[in-house]
Amino acid sequence: MGASMTMQKGTNVAVPARSVRVELGWRSSPGAPDVDASALLLVSGKVRDDADFVFYNQPEHRSGAVRHEGKRTGSGGVTDTLVVDFGRMEGSVDRVVVAASADGGTFGRVTGLYVRVLDQAGGAEIARFESADATVETAFILGELYLRQGAWKFRAVGQGYDTGLEGLATDFGISVDEPQRSAPPRPAPSAPQPRVAPRPAPAASAPQPPAPPAPPARPVRLTKVTLTKEAPSVSLTKQGGTTGTLRVNLNWEVRKQFKGWGAKLGRAVAVHADLDLDLCALYELTDGRKGVVQALGNAFGALDRPPYIHLDGDDRTGAVSTGENLTVNLDHRERLRRVLIFVTIYEGARSFADLHATVTLQPQNGAAIDFSLDECTVPSTVCALALITNNGTGELMVQREARYLVPQRGVSPQRTIDAAYGWGMNWTPGRK
């Protein structure tokens, strides 16, 4: 479906694919708010529980049917992507609402907002809806995938909220963790009087104690933690983010054109040369073992055994990738003493100058943590991103490093970062 087939509000189209990518896109501009995609899995118009909300702090549904893939910067704008696999959808789910929320402003300041549905298998565009009439809204339902007579369809909605992601989520039955706001107590419902034949009054007895209240469901946390030079660290323990997995994502754009080849935004192949950045991790376990997880030498690691860190396969094309991703298994956090996340330039550039990079650490439980790298003004080919430490008392800390290092002549980036952080490993040349 081409641009001429852009949908009007309220119209619908059939979705014949088994799995689709739902892409929210907008043009980035100075002063405009950031936009986040989210999805709600509904049964008869409501979520079954808070797990039916898929967004940046809860990026994958337990069924695997919906997952949030995250942002990337491309030529002309930014996209945030969800993947919906109808083959894994639970039978009771009959609707998936596709929503957008603005972080730091209203949608009236966001230009070029659209949603489009792509066949995951072939990449063909199935549906596209452009939203152009926003004003004071801070959240939007852009569209919905819904089941009708056994077949999935997509409807363009375009309904706005001025109460943000919180208002939208609570509208569908999500309980949101907003401690500064307390709901007024609800009056207890009066018990219905059963209709029974009159019986003699029994002897007086002590009143029965009331049943203990059911424990409240753990509410969804919408907050994000942004680390800065002034506030560079956060406790994963205090955030409640020390179980399950921790997904580390590095995404970037090239701000200027490198000499000799046309630079593209995002992690993309240039016309004449590859720009290949590698996300890596140095680790030290509590038993003293040390090592590196990296694409070089195919040292991709593992989640179910030491080092409990795994690197996604290295993809230099950037065509489908959302940057570089690395996962840490926090269920084995007591085995980890420290983990240093860093990035190296494998080829395609001589330094990080003109690369604008964003680092996101997404705990399976707890708030997302993100930060941007400062502008690089030195001939650096290796940058320390974040240091995760277990201080021995069970508290897991994340420290923003954002530290550019300049290797000495003949010294590898890995040796350079090892020396800067005192890892004390022996290095041999490797390739990928």
Reported for the largest beta sheet, the result is:
7 strands, mixed
* Termini Cα gap: 39 Å
What's the CATH class label of the largest domain? Mainly Beta
**Which strand-content bin applies to the residues?**
35-45%
Q: How many strands in all?
A: 24
Q: Could you give the order of strands across the largest sheet? A: 12-22-21-14-19-18-17
Supply the CATH superfamily name of the largest domain.
Answer: sav2460 like domains
Describe the global form: globular
Which residue ranges are poorly predicted, with pLDDT under 50 across at least 5 consecutive positions?
179-208, 211-216, 256-273, 317-321
> Which CATH architecture of the largest domain?
Sandwich
What is the N-to-C order of secondary-structure elements (H for helix, E for strand)? Answer: EEEEEEEEEEEHEEEEEEEEEEEEEH
The CATH topology of the largest domain is given as: Lipoxygenase-1
Can you describe this structure in just a few lines?
This protein is mainly beta and 432 residues long. It has helices spanning 164-171, 413-421, and strands spanning 12-14, 19-27, 34-42, 53-54, 66-74, 77-85, 95-103, 111-119, 125-130, 139-148, 151-161, 224-226, 233-235, 245-254, 276-285, 290-293, 301-302, 309-311, 324-329, 336-347, 355-363, 368-372, 382-390, 396-405. The protein starts with 11 loop residues before the first strand and ends in an 11-residue tail after the last helix.
